[in-house]
Recover the amino acids of this structure.
């Protein structure tokens, strides 16, 4: 997850991906995961580019499960496009059994009592990475065992993730909590042990799956703390005159080194407080984001402020940005990002229905 890797070096990481091994072991903490997600989230490399690289080496059948997992990310993005800020509240089903809307103290301290989860939480704080299956276990413990509302807990996780994606993060928490699907995600200690090579016994997860979350909240999960994460804003770069210039506006999810490559213009990464006040990221995550931008966008200027405060922007000859739900208010031309299944549009209430449409589009 080195932010100074070149575009070609990132693409070359795909050479180590074995989609067959990935399909068999991706749920294990030591499984054959790709760790490409920090680059995907920031738009440095696109989903189609990764898919095409894999398909150049493996058959569609061998790569199917891997591509399906890429499609999950695209699905979440399309829900975000369709629903906008509705993804930050219960999107389909309301739950009335949440105890509070704060953070579970044991979770944020990495003291849940579940060895695999606590290890992953501590690794998250130190490195910004957490295995996807561990994210699901963490969300399950917070929402379905400790009975915390998912919203603040999801913001806490997003704050620490190098690959923090608003849609994938929020909608994954909703999937676990049972607000985007009609059931909650539940696992027991046996599954956690099997996927993490731990040997915990006599924990609050050491039960049959159908009993998880049915008993009283474990004492260690009762304490709660408020969400106090805040964005530490850097200083803005001094912008040049934009008068009669072509301006390329980047945002935290569009650091694409191939976008208008070689064309003359002023390139600006916009860090908007209207976004980061609501969805702050840690200093570690911001450093990764800034380093990616300065590595992959030659001559980029970083501007901290809402877009309407960019002096001279109305006097630019042309303004371009990549389309995203968080930048619909940007001026100028909004261009589409590459998609796996651009022909599949609209809102699908479940990934299963979306995937069916994707398969139909390919066969068609």
């Amino acid at each position: 997850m080195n932010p100074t890797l070149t575009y070609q070096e990132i693409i070359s990481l795909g050479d180590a991906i074995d989609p067959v091994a990935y399909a068999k072991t991706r749920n294990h903490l030591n499984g054959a995961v790709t760790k490409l997600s920090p680059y995907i989230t920031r738009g440095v490399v696109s989903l189609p580019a990764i898919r095409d690289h894999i398909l150049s080496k493996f058959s569609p059948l061998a790569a199917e499960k891997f591509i399906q997992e890429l499609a999950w990310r695209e699905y979440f993005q399309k829900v975000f496009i369709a629903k906008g800020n509705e993804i930050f509240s219960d999107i389909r089903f309301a739950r009335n059994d949440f105890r509070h809307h704060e953070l579970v103290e044991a979770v944020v301290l990495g003291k849940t009592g579940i060895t695999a989860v606590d290890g992953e939480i501590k690794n998250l704080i130190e490195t910004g990475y957490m295995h996807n299956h561990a994210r699901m276990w963490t969300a399950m413990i917070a929402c379905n065992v400790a009975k915390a509302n998912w919203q603040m807990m999801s913001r806490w996780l997003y704050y620490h993730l190098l690959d923090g994606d608003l849609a994938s993060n929020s909608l994954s928490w909703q999937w676990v909590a049972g607000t985007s699907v009609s059931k909650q995600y539940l696992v027991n200690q046996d599954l956690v042990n099997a996927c993490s090579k731990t040997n915990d016994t006599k924990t609050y997860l050491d039960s049959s799956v159908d009993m998880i979350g049915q008993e009283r909240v474990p004492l260690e999960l009762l304490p709660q703390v408020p969400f106090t994460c805040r964005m530490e804003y850097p200083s803005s770069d001094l912008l040049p005159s934009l008068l009669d210039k072509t301006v390329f506006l980047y945002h935290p999810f569009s650091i694409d080194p191939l976008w208008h490559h070689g064309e003359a213009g002023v390139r600006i990464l916009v860090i908007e407080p209207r976004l980061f006040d609501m969805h702050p990221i840690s200093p570690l995550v911001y450093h990764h984001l800034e380093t990616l931008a300065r590595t992959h966008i030659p001559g980029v200027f970083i501007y901290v402020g809402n877009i309407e405060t960019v002096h001279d922007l109305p006097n630019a000859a042309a303004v371009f940005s990549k389309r995203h739900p968080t930048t619909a208010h940007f001026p100028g031309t909004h261009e589409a990002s590459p998609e796996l299944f651009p022909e599949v549009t609209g809102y699908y209430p479940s990934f299963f229905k979306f995937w069916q449409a994707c398969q139909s589009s390919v066969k068609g």
